[in-house]
């Protein structure tokens, strides 16, 4: 969550990276000049930021927003700073009706996860039987809530251990524990007669995709936004494995592909206002928060992310503790 500003005076503080390596080790907190907004951008004072693998705005408006991945990769710009310059289409004004109920932390955690979930929920229809792979991921937990809003008839999700209860609370009717059960065999055994209308994959479970003809309708679709084969070390083998699986999504059945429609869902630009108006104003969708870290502890936030055990978003609070929207959580 952040507040737009129009002035670019003084200094800002930001966590920056100048060399390759694990983020908790290579991150360095630095004092920098406050960014000068370019045409089509606004200067944003950041209150909280979440850790992640076009609207009319006036000065002082509370907004939620994000810096797209391609911007981070191309320009090295991230949101772990006291001030950032963001393109207007990557922001949404927080409606007055939820201005006091939506915390800065929740507003920070929602943009990327909710717009990613929006890509997937568009594949489902009211009355659909849906399989969600990765129900306990941040995207999965938000997706489950969206599916309930859209009237999904029956939702099956994958999760493990203590996370199963949270997944059910967020909307799953049935949970498959992937650590205790063979997911593919369970799906074949329990869902081959009444098959799924759509499979929504938040983690990149290509094993489930490869066998989905047994439990996904011929008219159904497998949609994927996950990349579980990509490892933090960026090794060539993990990259090749990911590329091989990505190619399998588009391989025709007569060349050995899966005989079901499949797609890699792309990022939706300018989708935040839709998420806000359709799901947040009614509070039908809320942000699951795993943990909170102070600004000075940002490397520890990445350490938590790298454990792979987070249940919800990992938040770094940047605004000083005097900010009433974050002080109660520190």
From TrEMBL:
SMART domains: PKS_ER
Molecular function via GO: oxidoreductase activity
Xref: InterPro entries: ER (IPR020843), GroES-like_sf (IPR011032), NAD(P)-bd_dom_sf (IPR036291), YIM1/Zinc_Alcohol_DH_Fams (IPR050700)
GO cellular component annotations of the record: mitochondrion
Coiled coil stretches, renumbered: none
PANTHER family documented for this protein: ALCOHOL DEHYDROGENASE RELATED (PTHR11695), RETICULON-4-INTERACTING PROTEIN 1, MITOCHONDRIAL (PTHR11695:SF294)
Annotated protein name in UniProt: Uncharacterized protein
Native species: Pseudozyma antarctica (Yeast)
